[in-house]
């Protein structure tokens, strides 16, 4: 028996969007369903009925106006805005619109196939519920990304990829011819293709198989792929870089200031391979010092318009994961030609200052140089010189694996530079700079990249010495261009004032630990923040307070409009000192030389776009670095599942308590549903959970003992079992 033929709807795509687009293109004109059907090119009964129904729905939502029975129009586009979608893990989101003070709430049903970070057009409803404007996404202007990382679940006829990103509210449907030889359970990269209107899931194709979930190689590459970060350089870029003339030739030397005879050295981490900054030091006859900050002249080798420059721009930054560096430049440049290695001549771009004994700048010079590094120190070696005032480096400090003696001129240089750096730092603090010395978590890895230990990296005087002179160069270069008239296009490192609400929230939290903030004005805010950061040193709440204080700050970014740098208390600031690993520094070198040559101002829009891209890539790299640390912490804790750990409650939410282990800074969650001794309720104002029956409370900052319940490498998540308050456990 033949099936009865039915008239299937012929409308393609999103009908709401199609109708709204027609009415908006003809703003003010009225249309009935027949006219809309005609424009859409459909004439079957089913399609016409869909249009009639959709027109009624849009009118009910007040997205369009029914001016008389059956006739509809959009008066103007005043309720339409463009912004960026920020999705939550619960499936709804907010769109941030520049013209509007508040973010617009978007329900899951109104996302209309938009993903986190997409630039979207939204319609904002006139109505307000609970004082929150709501809207619907009407168009996807630009996808932030089209590739996602997830795990393949293979069925008989097809597959689904479940996406790792917690903000992704849907899986991806994969047809058999789009599997790319991936097998069930593989971690894969899937590319978005389309999301048909009637489909429950978007359609995608697998572009890369990363491996088995939980394996080290797979998870590290998953982190890079999740943020769209590259790994290997394209073959043609490597070939181009390898053909560059990296010789220190006389023709180029003649165009530069020759500083090869001036005492010059580097201070870097002991495992560093790319040395992009060096210091030179000499006493002047008037008693002042000439101090040079010499930076690898990357812009000499990376020329605009080349595939190497395009690759460096696309990457915009090196990415530092726990077990590797993904460099911005190929190794021939990053670790060789541009690296200011000891006993080698290098082309450099320099900021040279005459400085008196009170660390005041009396003169300055900027330009291209050729330098020779006399010595390479690790921070530990320089610190030993500072602490002892001698040049005898013992074998347990030496990176040469044996004791050695540093000549007197180098010892004098290090000690003098440290004394000047301390004066510069003290002046910065008096001027309102904020001293963020957050503890960095580092791992001792074995040959298989498994973590066998955790240690904390803290900044000592040798680190701060280098930091101060890099800050000096960055500030003075920015001032040199920023103060010129007429105004010239330049790349600034900008840091806005903190948000008042975030500071008030921080004040509320630290008050629970007996600390106070004075938010009366900028000076009292910064001085009380510095006092807070100093007071928590070595205390149980230090890492939590450090983290919360940093989060209360605005995010630094690159831009052509100078607004100064709040955290450093500088009116002008840029990034000049790390061109091997940051593209903005390459742009700064090019612009500085451009203006030193007397050329006119560069194009503002071009550089603003490049700054925006660089800021975005910096954020992605930062997220990847954070995820790799979290992954390694979970991996480390897998081997300690039956051990008890003392921790501090670092966060309290409606679904659980976050605890940070004191000895290794690993953070995990105790879920409220797993706390079986009572029914616990979340008290947001108190930053605590309280047992209904016993009144037992667990509050932010409390010390508790925990045991690892589950260490999930794939989700990079730790679950803890609560053993009790410190006093109770230690007393029992």
Task: Describe the protein.
The chain is of the alpha+beta class. The protein has five domains: 15-73, Arc Repressor Mutant, subunit A; 80-142, OB fold (Dihydrolipoamide Acetyltransferase, E2P) (Beta Barrel); 147-213, OB fold (Dihydrolipoamide Acetyltransferase, E2P) (Beta Barrel), CATH 2.40.50.700; 235-488 and 578-620, no CATH class; 640-731, Beta Barrel (OB fold (Dihydrolipoamide Acetyltransferase, E2P)). The protein contains 18 helices and 35 strands. Helix 2 crosses helix 3 and helix 4 (216-226) packs antiparallel against helix 17. The longest helix is centred in the C-terminal third of the chain and has 35 residues, at 604-638. Mean pLDDT is 92; it is low at 1-9.
Structural class by sheet pairing and helices: alpha+beta
Number of domains: 5
Helix content: 25-40%
Largest sheet: 7 strands, mixed
Which parts are unreliable, with pLDDT below 50 for 5 consecutive residues or more? 1-9
Task: Count the E strands.
Answer: 35
Rg, nearest Å:
30 Å
GO molecular function, one term: RNA binding
Protein name: Ribonuclease R
GO cellular component, one term: cytosol
Family: Belongs to the RNR ribonuclease family. RNase R subfamily.
